[in-house]
Amino acid sequence: MTARVIDGKSLAAALRAEVGRKVAATGFTPGLAVVLVGEDPASSVYVRTKDRAAREAGIDARTIRLPADTSQDALLATIAGLNDDPAIDGILVQLPLPRGIDQRVVIEAIDPAKDVDGFHPVNVGYLADGRPNLVPCTPLGVMKMLRHAGVTLSGARALVLGRSAIVGRPMGALLLAADATVTIAHSRTLDLAGECRRADILVAAVGRVEMVTADWIKPGATVIDVGINRLPDGRLAGDVAFEQAAAVAGAITPVPGGVGPMTVACLLENTLTAASRRRAG
Predict the structure, then answer these.
(1) Cis geometry, peptide bond prior to residue 121 (ω within 30 degrees of 0)
(2) Nearest-CA neighbor of 179 among 161, 200, 204?
(3) Quick one: 237 exposed, middle or buried, by C-beta within 10 A (0-12, 13-18, 19+)?
(4) Phi-psi domain of 100 (left: phi exceeds 0; alpha: psi -120 through 50; beta: other)
(5) How many alpha carbons fall within 13 Å on the CB side of residue 49?
(6) Residue 39: what pLDDT?
């Protein structure tokens, strides 16, 4: 069996173009502020990618770069200013933050109506209650990929490998809202490989290079690889051993070119959503 590859790159391009068309039709320019603290190389690359994609979609992107020794109070003051800025519809603080800054305090300082990352407790609560508001971009992108690929969600047995607040937990909530039967597995799960083999849909989001091998996958299952790991030779690899998994799965996402581009596209969609809601009152 050779798995069908779910091309996130082309799907993301279509979504970005759709957002661009909608922005052009609104008559206003959504504003997105991305706050980067320090000079982490990976974060800097992500921020440049987001900035370029936003501008191409007609969104006014503003990148605020703060030095690595920025105090928590100074960062909170920056966020307060963006909360009060009528030209800003979406605020994203690039993670991870330097040591000494409490990530939870920073996230909770963002106006929930401008929280385009979907991490604020208010938006997390809406999602847990089955009423998604602004949803974390990566899980939202995964759901779009599954639906685009024609994967049956209702009644499917889905397993999310990883329990982070950024991907794992919101991913489980979205799958549950789509009537899948959801298991969230993690490092303490007993018989982890066996749990994975029972899944019709397997979402891997643990950050461990090629942890999921062919014998962890149910024949014909849909495998979504959220992991992005840099190998010693500079290449990128996912949490799934792609070549061997593709021989067992029915459909699979590649790394790179899978979930990553969808995360950026969904950020743009969230920014447009936030902007439209603010102007609707």
Answers:
(1) no
(2) 200
(3) middle
(4) left
(5) 16
(6) 86
pLDDT digits (tens, 9 = 90+) for 179-206: 999 999 999 999 999 999 999 999 999 9
Residue 41: per-residue pLDDT = 82
Tokens (6 digits) for 59: 């969104």
Q: Show which residues are catalytic.
A: 50, 94, 117
Residue of 244, 139, 230, 239 lying closest to 186 (CA atoms): 239
* 52-65 tens-digit pLDDT: 999 999 999 999 99
The identity of residue 193, as a single letter, is A
**In 3D, which of 275, 244, 223, 261 has the Cα closest to residue 52?**
261
* For residue 111, pLDDT beyond 70: yes
- Among all chains, which residue has been given the structure tokens 């070119």? 257
Residues paired with residue 182 on neighbouring β-strands, in sequence order:
158
Contact 221, 180 (CB under 8 A): no
- Phi/psi at 81 (nearest 5 deg)? -65, -40
For the cut 70, the answer to whether the pLDDT of residue 245 exceeds it is: yes
Contacts of 183 (CB under 8 A, 6+ apart): 157, 158, 159, 160, 195, 199
